[in-house]
Amino acid sequence: MTSLIARLGFGQKEKSEESYYTAGQFALIRARFARKTSGVIAAWVLFSLVMLGLFAPFFSPVEPSVRGADPDYRRGAPQVVKFWDENGFSWRPFTYTYAKPETKIDLSALGGGGGLAALDALTASGALNASQQNKYEIHRDQRRYLQFFVRGAEYSLIDLSFGGLDLDIRWDRHLFGVESGQIHLMGTDEDGKDIFSRTLHAIWVTISIAIVALVVKLFASLLVGGVSGYFGGKVDAVLMSITEAVRVIPQIPIYLACAVMLAELELTPTERYFAIAVVIGALDFAALGRRLRTHILTERNQDYVLAAKLCGSNTWRVIWRHLVPSFTSYIIVDTLINFPYVILAETSLSFLGLGLTEPVNSLGVLLQKAQDPDIQQNMVWQYFPVLVFVALIMAFVFVGDALRDAADPYSERNK
Amino acid sequence: MTTLSSNTSSLLNIHDLSIDFRTDEGLVRAVDHLDLNIHPGEVMGLVGESGSGKSVTAKTIMRLNPGNAMIDRASRIQLHHDQKSIDVLSLRGQQLRMVRGGLVSMIFQEPMASFAPAMRIGDQIVETIQIHLGHDREKARRIGIELFERVGIPFPEQRFDQYVFELSGGMRQRAMIAMALATQPRLLIADEPTTALDVTIQAQVLDLMLELREQFGMAMLFITHDLGVISKIADNVTVMKRGEAVEAGPAEQVLFHPQHAYTQRLIDALPELDELPEPPAERPEPLVSIQNLSIRYPLAGGGMNRTEFFTAVDSVSLDLPRGQIIGLVGESGSGKTSLGKALLGASPISTGEVSYHTEQPFCFGSNKTLKRKQLAKVAQLVFQDPYGSLNPRMTVRDIIAEPLEALKMTRSREETDQRVIEVAKRCHIEVSHLRRFPHAFSGGQRQRISIARALVCTPQFVVADEAVAALDVSIQAEILTLLKRLKQELGITILFISHDLSVVANLCDHVCVMKQGRLVEQGSVRQIFLNPHQAYTRKLIKAIPLLKKREPVGESPLTLKAS
């Protein structure tokens, strides 16, 4: 907390001159970033969201798959956490026991040869209505106290068991839970899966798709932009025509085409997930590639690059020692600013039903669910992922914005 | 400090002017309790090094300061005109615009940037006249063309309808002056009006301004860092240092009997022409020979099949004597930088050859490729721009060590560090500063780093391309002393490219003069400056603004100094 206050600028200490003079690129960026309050707040929000997503199994009280679904509390409303009620105050937060009334659908009439008339009667009684199914009872006398670090479903905290590595730390503790039954902070869906837990898991799925997509994009743009900018001339002309050709094809139809193609292939959800990331990344290199090319074109004509050449540096040394550091800050900023767009691409694909689909937890899948009229009318709590999504995108945008302003500490001083 | 009597007979009266700038690091004082008086018809020279607050003062008179400038409440700027007193700092709207460009007008350093590029020059002048004097278009145009004639622009009618990029530097500045005079201002503020010009053009523009002052009877506030220029044009001089006026008085007194230590230092730092060294009895062996070297650049927009060429350097042959500082002078566009860079393999050689007579002699040229690493060990470059030539993302240590690491000249990191520290000490860079980044240094310190980088791999030949042109005069003197010392201690040969002949006279042993890509004359510094053979060289030398007492026009300063 003290560090937060310091970063917000209340208790900022006078820095000695020497530390400024010996401050490298990233130290200067950090100092300038710390001065922008909105960026710092957004960075903390972003950091918390990412941590929540990364350690979702720990933070979520319930397993978000069918295995963890609560068969007795389908389509259940959010359960409110309280400290006091008419029965008194408790230091330990509690919730009540929520229960679904027994469904009293009399199917005997149907079986008894009543035929269509009986079915009509059943429908008219309202027992089959969705709103009827949403009803629940609160047993205010049965408090369920919140417990911390409870034992629950086993999960792997850190799983690095790939490519020969065998590191899978498994744990079964969850941050909170209740003694008996399950707690559903944000209610459940029609299968009884916990919305809160699903959302937390979805954050990381979505972010990791974005990371894969951005890494693919970065490599593609670095290759195209770097080669184009450094060598120039005919190479530049050819590469840039290709880039322009890719740029003018509208994105959504391409995504659709790829999605159809992916559907043709027999893919497990995980493979499908990476295929989407690669498609999104590979098609998005044009803008960044072009900007990198322009950057390198101007930078390679700077005096200090000529100075390096005259010092006897070969091409690789010029590129790695002089050119690459000149745009690392730029790449970092651009990547952060592009995060929300990649997430949006993933969500829009899933939203159209062509990306990830149920039962995978991704923000796009959850958003797609939210367009169901049934949910809009009867289960508004399923909009919770939308709020998280908006918060995540906003946090990325604000951090990216603040970083862009702080990005090139030399831009002002060089003039 | 001697202040001129402040009474109502003065035209401009600045009293107790203080200006602060709001920056991230807090308030920075730009002008500190400045008093300044200008009488009608007087030329006031405002001198100081960069950052001394000269331009801020000028802009404040025109009320053109940027938004983060805060003017102290006690400050007063008054203009006295037609028995009226105008309080400049309280002017607003229409009144302010009538003073700006009407009563007071301004000439800037960069005429290219001060004209709207997409508007004909004449239209801009006509607009000014229409607004301030209320004439109709036709009459305004007639006045404008007449002004063009008076500032010495040939073919004024045609020039009037041209765009700024179609004029040469000197013509642009004349057009700028014509525009400033269009409204017959009582005060003309000239902010470094000749700094961007070649020395011969500078002399013409200064003569013109003096002449126009007589004709129009206006006062001038002439801002410059060049004391030579001041001695030519100003009646009174105010010397500024860090926002304060440290000395003020008549030009003769300030320039020849300076009272304040800072003024004395500025004047001592000026290069002088009277100590030209005797050339050595026999010319040393050449270190670098240039044979018949030409550099041609293809021009864009040539014919369909045939590319047109611009010849930057036109068959130059030259021997650079070992262990000397060779000056290469000429006006801008004369090809001196192209030639200097060609010696380092940094400009494409169209024909001809460059040979280095080192222990292992080698040469390169139009039909012989260059071995970059071999050359880098022998020859290095010091750049003009001390800001752009140092990678801002590397520490000073890494910048200086670059040639050692790129050429793999040291075996270990310790050895590299040792060589870097050695050369840093030689160039007066504090060892503790090696960990810093270039953004921590001023222009002069950066130029030392640049020199250290050039020297770290012990080259025998260094090209210094306008290495002191971007520096203040006192810093310039320090760098020149450093170069001289390095030549003596290390025996290196330096090719010193410069447009400033007074610097060359002070530093070099041998001088080459270039004009439009050709080498027109070369010889020992004494011969070139005292007995130039070519008319072009004579013209260049005559145009040097030297610190001197006003003499009858037309007499060369050198004949006096030499006698």
Which properties best describe this structure?
heterodimer, A: 415 residues, alpha+beta, MetI-like fold, 18 helices, disordered N terminus, B: alpha/beta, Rossmann fold, six-stranded mixed β-sheet, 21 helices, globular
- Please indicate the percent range of residues of chain B in DSSP E strands (runs of 2 or more): 15-25%
What's the count of strands of chain A?
A: 4
CATH architecture of the domain at 287-562 in chain B: 3-Layer(aba) Sandwich
Task: Give start-end ranges of low-pLDDT stretches of chain A.
Answer: 1-15, 411-415
Shape of chain B: globular
Total helical elements of chain B:
21
Structural class of chain B: alpha/beta
Extended strand count of chain B: 21
Task: Explain what this protein looks like in three dimensions.
- The complex is a heterodimer of chains A (415) and B (563).
- Chain A contains 18 helices and four strands.
- Chain A is α+β, with helices and mostly antiparallel strands.
- Chain A has two domains: 72-188, no CATH class; 200-413, Orthogonal Bundle (MetI-like fold).
- Residues 1-15 and 411-415 of chain A have low confidence and may be disordered.
- Chain B is built from 21 helices and 21 strands.
- Chain B has a domain at 287-562: Rossmann fold.
- Chain A binds chain B through residues 20-25, 302-304, 306-314, 317, 321-322, 325-326, 409-410, 413-414, and chain B through 344-346, 372-373, 376-377, 380-381, 383, 385, 387-395, 402-403, 406-407, 433, 435-437, 439-440, 450, 453, 457.
